[in-house]
Amino acid sequence: MGANNKAILIIIDGLGDLTPNSPLQTAKKKNLDRLAKEGITGMLSTIKRGIVPGSDTSHLSILGYEPEKYYCGRGPLEALGVGVQMKEGDVAFRANFATAQGNNITDRRAGRIDTLISKKLESSLNFDIEDVQCIFKTSVEHRGVLVLRGSGLSANVSETDSYKTGYSPESKPLDESKEAKKTARIINAFTKIAREHLEAHEENRKQEKSGKPKANAILLRGAGNYKKTQSFMERFGIAAACVAGGALYRGIAKYIGMTLVTVDGATGTKDTNLHEKAKEAVLSLRSNDLIFLHIKACDSFGHDGDPKGKTKMIERIDAELIPLLAKSGANLIITGDHSTPCARRGHSGHEVPILIWGNERQDEVTQFDEQSCMHGGLGHIEGKDLIPIILNLIGKGKKYGS
Ligand code: ZN
Ligand code: ZN
User: Residue 143, SS3?
Assistant: First the structure.
């Protein structure tokens, strides 16, 4: 083995499902099964047993940052992921372009407006209100982030996205502090000005002419107050890099000071370029001890209730990603951040299978799926166990005691 003092942690988002006939059990995946046969397996509760994880909190937990202590809300993580240079005290939100008639929301995604159009609308959403700078950045389709930068702000305000249509968006302070009152006031002013700027924008004239929904309103959710945190290197003493397409995952990596690797065609969708991701991950091993490689699409198929799509994606991962990673000689840790059972169309608290291949003992398990890994030698572990296991795997564990 060439790189047995290095490791690649592969997180397949939403990997776990319900048995029997889970996508993992159904998929043809000879490479993953070979690694299961040669390695050690088990089950992982990424947060705690039975807890239904969000992708944000589960990733923090897996990467060694207890979410109870380090989770600062989804907004700041997304903002980091789309490249906003965050400052301590910033309050950030996830944002949606929406369609409004008058003050009434009629489509909370503005017909999933094209990314190219939302990009053109972006600059009209950057302005100041009182002493607060509003920083708006789009990501994909109707999605983006809003960062509020100024004195005395609070994330303790209500969202303006109510996950429904037929209402007029408004934020309210959720406590009596002057910070929450000020922030709600700024959000409501932003919502109003954004509505005017977008309504007047020439891109929306074009949308109207072609009979498409206008992107003429902004809805906000996932408020969080950004705090700087200890870097991965400071905390664990190893250099780590991230290969991911999705903004949230890039944002989490940025938040904990990992190096972000840019990969052509890493989209965070089912069309993602797995071969290219594998290649970049292996290249990045040269200057890093650990690579965190994230693949999103299995979770999306779970949310859509599409077991066939999820199965196909697992087969693609097996064929296009795993062989290249295994050839690098690095230790491989393959698991998910939570289960997204297709039958539930959402996350669940069922444990996910985990497989470790490299400097580990071998167990009797010969297949990588929910049912088989229950019998694995790792037993049942939690997210917080993973980084210590990886540090030991690559010979970087510190002795506890003398
Ligand atoms: Zn997830
Ligand atoms: Zn999900």
Answer: strand
Architecture in CATH of 7-72+230-393: 3-Layer(aba) Sandwich (3.40)
- Per-residue pLDDT reduced to its tens digit, 344-395: 999 999 999 999 999 999 999 999 999 999 999 999 999 999 999 999 999 9
Cβ count within 10 A of residue 392: 13
| CA 17 to ligand 2 centroid distance, Å | 12
Delimit the domains of the chain by residue range: 7-72+230-393, 78-225
E strands in 46-204 = 91-101, 104-107, 127-129, 132-138, 143-149
- Compute, in angstroms, the gap from residue 152 CA to the centroid of ligand 1: 33
Number of other residues whose CB lies within 10 A of the CB of residue 327: 11
Element (H, E) at 76: helix 74-81
Exposure of 62 by Cβ count < 10 A (0-12 exposed, 13-18 middle, 19+ buried)? buried
Contacts of 102 (CB under 8 A, 6+ apart): none
Ligand nearest the Cα of residue 249 is 1
> pLDDT confidence of 2, banded at 50, 70, 90?
low
Distance of CA 272 from the midpoint of ligand 1 (Å): 16
Rounded distance from Cα 46 to ligand 1 centre (Å)? 10
Residue 88: C-alpha distances to residues 78, 226, 247, 256 (Å): 15, 6, 20, 14
CA distance 181 to 156: 9
**Cβ neighbours, 10 Å, residue 219:** 23
Which of 93-115 are b and which e, b meaning 16 or more Cβ less than 10 Å from the residue's Cβ? bbbbbbbbeeeebebbbbbebbe
* CA–CA dist 9, 334 (Å, integer): 6
Enumerate residues with CB within 5 Å of ligand 2 (an ion): 299
Give the integer Cα–Cα distance in Å for 322 and 32: 7
Average pLDDT over residues 16-42: 98
Largest CA distance in the chain: 75
